[in-house]
């Protein structure tokens, strides 16, 4: 079995070890949101930061107070990221690395990863149709899940917090810039508006 890992957050700009191939693609029916508390990377137990998770789109829209008909996908209900194929000689090592890396509230799931054929514009599977990529998700019932926060409150938290892996805002900025460069055709209003809101809080020199 070939081992693929799908990155939608910091894995986009900091790939897992022993990745021998990478493919851009998206996961359907989910949204990427800064709704996960971080006490071990971009915050501390005393002052948790915020990092991303992907959330079932209908569940998130419900948290926002939106009533979306079942089976309906909004334009934002796709998360673009990178699928990494791991060297099979290091599969056990990388799985242990991912389990340690995502220990604060994330659980392992498997998803199909899609893209669009450049010639026909038809949707295709990035990873072989028999396989699915491993993805680490902070589900709504995990203890680190924060849920919906007003954007201005979220921006203030991100602008102020830091942890062992660095400033919380640097995590946001790197993610936004990576998405912008890798997928210039993708409209991610949530991510780019949050980036702008945090930058607006930067001290003016």
UniProtKB/TrEMBL annotation:
GO terms for molecular function: glutathione specific gamma-glutamylcyclotransferase activity. GO terms for biological process: glutathione catabolic process. InterPro entries: ChaC, GGCT-like, GGCT-like_sf. Keywords: Lyase. The keyword Acyltransferase does not apply. Its EC number is 4.3.2.7. GO terms for cellular component: cytoplasm. SUPFAM superfamilies: Gamma-glutamyl cyclotransferase-like. It is an enzyme of class 4 (lyase). This is glutathione-specific gamma-glutamylcyclotransferase. The lineage of its organism: Eukaryota, Fungi, Dikarya, Basidiomycota, Agaricomycotina.
